[in-house]
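Hi support team,

I submitted a single chain yesterday and got back a structure, but I'm not sure I'm reading the token output correctly. Could someone confirm the output below corresponds to the sequence I sent? I've pasted both exactly as they appear in my results page.

Thanks,
R.
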Amino acid sequence: MNVEEFRDFCLSLKGTTEHFPFDEVTLVIKVQGKMFALIPLDNPETQITLKCDPERAISLREEFSAITSAWHFNKKHWNTVFIDPMISRDFLCELIIHSYALVVAGLPRKLREALD
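Hi R., thanks for writing in. Yes, this is the structure output for that exact sequence:
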């Protein structure tokens, strides 16, 4: 899975939009205005940073050396995933869906209902 495939998969989820709020090299994916994925466009390594609940973040970092704390935000709540052969496309899609669902669950009811 490359950066463009990440982007396309994230944008296929209902209510998602893309933004460049930090700089022209970091693509931010939001659902109803809340960030759930960051894609650095200037990094030679394929990677994506995803919102994650704290317990799952710790578990994933212990299981996969390709998953690290994010370099920004609250490190307990974000993971940077470096793509390597040990991580399957299906697993990456599941990580993205988990991050999306986590953010959607925290939205006010009206915004959640708009996604149904």
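A quick pointer for reading it: The mean pLDDT is 83. Let us know if anything else looks off.

Best,
Support desk
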